[in-house]
Amino acid sequence: ACHRFADLISNDSFWIEHARMHNKQKVLPPLPWRRAVAQKKFDVNESEEVDVSNFKFNMKKMVLGGRGYSPIIPSFHSHFETARENTIRGVIRSDDFSIRASADGIRMELNGGEGCQPHPEVSQCFAYSFSTSAISIFIDLVDSGIDEWILDYVRPKIRITQKINHRHDCSARIAFAAQLNYNETQWIHEFGMRQTAGNTDNKRYKSIVKE
I need a surface site. Which of 28, 102, 103, 167 has the fewest CB within 10 A? Predict the structure, then answer.
């Protein structure tokens, strides 16, 4: 019985059905990707074909983790919810994010407020003070359930989005930046963050900045 159970939970079909029954289909890789793995050939962004005979998806990890290939939404709202007047001043850091709020701080507003225009798709927004502040998010894709071989060989496009709106009581400017790293990094926490050169693999590194 133990061997039969071990065989059952090692089968991808079991975890796919588990995800369907618990309404977690979003954590699964796209169906064309699953078919490509079954066929041992994978078309990648560079118009090349990768032999994936030795690779497979870790369905168990992504389904039990609850994230996998679903959209990743950073969660740091609780720190604002417990702060006085929903406003953070100074610096707060964790393994997942860094908040550096200068001057009067960064305020979380619900359904619009002094610094945010109401929007039907946005329940929470963050109004920055009249000085440079920053919210930095760190996401470990592998820990979230993305398979390492997908990142190394398939190298899919990663889409990052953020809704923004200028304050209605003054002019403002926002810099939106993203950086992809394959090695463990040592971040220097400052405005316009830098990464130490010794931890950068230039072949697997990309940085974008939009203003």
Answer: 103
The values of phi and psi at residue 174, to 5°, are -130, 140
Q: Look at residue 28 in the predicted model and tell me its pLDDT.
A: 92
* Average pLDDT, rounded, for the chain: 75
| pLDDT tens-digit map of 109-156 | 877 666 677 777 777 788 777 778 888 888 888 888 888 888 887 888
| Overall average pLDDT of the 14-43 stretch | 86
Q: Are 55 and 37 in contact (CB under 8 A)?
A: yes
3-state secondary structure the chain: CHHHHHHHHCCHHHHHHHHHHCCCHHHCCCHHHHHHHHCCEEECCCCCEEECCCCCCCHHHHHHHCCCCCCCCCCCHHHHHCCHHHEEEEEEECCCEEEEEEEEEEEEEECCCCCCCCECCECEEEECCCCCCEEEECCCHHHHCCCHHHHHHHCCCCCCCCCCCCCCCCCCCCCEEEEECCCCCCEECCCCCEECHHHCCHHHCEEEEEC
User: Rounded CA gap, 38 and 61, in Å?
Assistant: 19
Quick one: angle between helices 2-9 and 12-21, nearest 10? Answer: 70
Phi, psi of 89 (to 5 degrees): -120, 145
For the CA atoms of 40, 45, 49, 51, the dihedral, rounded to the nearest 10 degrees, stands at: -40
How far is the C-alpha of 66 from the C-alpha of 74, rounded, in Å?
Answer: 14
